[in-house]
Amino acid sequence: MIHRSQNSNSIWQKFETSVLLPLGQDLRTDVCVVGGGIAGLTTAYLLLKNGFKVAVLEKENFALNETALTSGHLSSILDEGFAKLIHQHGLKGARLAYESHCDAIDLIEKIIAEESIACDFHRLDGYLFLDSETPSRYLENELEACQQIGLKEAYIQAAPRYFANFGPCIAFPNQAHFHPLKYMNGLLQAIQKMGGQVFGLTSAQEVVSGKKNRHVKTESGYQVHAEHIVVATNVPINDRVFVHTKESAYRSYVIGFQIPSDSFPDILMWDTASPYHYVRKVLETETKFDTLLIGGEDHRVGQEDLPEQCYEKLAEWARVRLGIQGPLSERWSGQIIEPIDGLAYIGKNPGDENVYIVCGDSGHGLTHGTIAGIIIRDLIQHIENEWIQLYDPARIHWRALPQMMQENLKSFAQYEDHLHLRKELRNEELKPGEGTLVKQGLHEVAVYCDEALQIHSFSAICPHLGGVVHWNSAEKTWDCPCHGSRFACTGEVLNGPATTPLRLTELPVQFLPQVKEDHATSRRNLAGH
Ligand code: FES
How much is the pTM? Predict the structure, then answer.
């Protein structure tokens, strides 16, 4: 069992979802989908509707994947901004991007109606506010870009009453919000009703893409043979390098406050700060309180020394800007994969036949994941769709190259940790629930002391491409700053692209960390046992 931090459960995870059983034998099917998040399940649902046999493999249970860690917003207004999208993808590309996200929300609404899924879906307005650092002409430019792509109903207005001190904003009607896990649970039931198979606790280790022998191999050694394979794992596990040079992994934080119902408007709002802030409200029908969610403070995975402060900064922003304070009722974080040009990579895996990938959600995972279902359904059936080229994973736009170089330099810089790891760390005090890195000869070792004072030690080298993992004290995880793989404090993979756990290693007695005296009643090195 993976040791997860209880600090980071989302508000949605209180909802009890169906339990998925693991795959227990080899299988043959038309389509094997790897990943049971919204992208994987929507793809499975749409293909089943079109008469395909589908099997889905999920590493854990879908209540634990990234879909469950979103804030539940459904927006057709992309974070990148339409002026930037026009610059990178041209007028037609930006228009198609906008339309695809509108269509994704419409499709979700249609599935909810057809499958009678009670998931608190409702339409509401969204507002983009200027941060104090952003020049005011940003809003005019953005509104002009909206008009150019056909988004005529956007308009600049004085802020709604609650946000009177925020200045002008752009209003975007017809956005939406829902409970992502209730929706996923309904989608799962619809899939199973149509004969689709969804397996949990089934980790895909290898995608074999040979023409005559196309299959997915699982950790338990079973094989799923399929005509088509869809890898919808947030970051692809079958592409070790190419796609990872075009996207970067970020942690994003959410806090929640209980507030009296009707004391805050039911809208989506976000600002232009970098990193940005957003606000959503979760309506509770059975109490007199709603939950206000405030999110943002994103940073590159493994590149923030004090991640707890991200929660504190959000709380401070809520106090100063919204006048909301008090104890937090929620706090969690999730992983966002930022593509270099603002749009997800969805489609044929470069160089493979009949293998498709979905990644680069860019903070719009719920709509990008739904778009993925439509694109892959059309690719498999050879149906023309203008979105196929727009979201093609093989694309490289020369206008996005500076951004690509900048992000890759940040990734490469992380490999220097091999050189800089300080020897004196070996004697650092370690409290229960803490982890640290130590140098052992030429090797870097990740050491974690659990609450029972047992020491767990691993090679600190990420099994993906050799980065050095960092200790994340807020989540109690090992995070790789290169391409965003994350591992539980006990070494198991939480987020790819890595597919295998941190390697257990023995920590020689002379390097055992000094567990703080008041707790040091027992100590045991688990490695090698
Ligand atoms: Fe690529 Fe760690 S995620 S080296």
Answer: 0.89
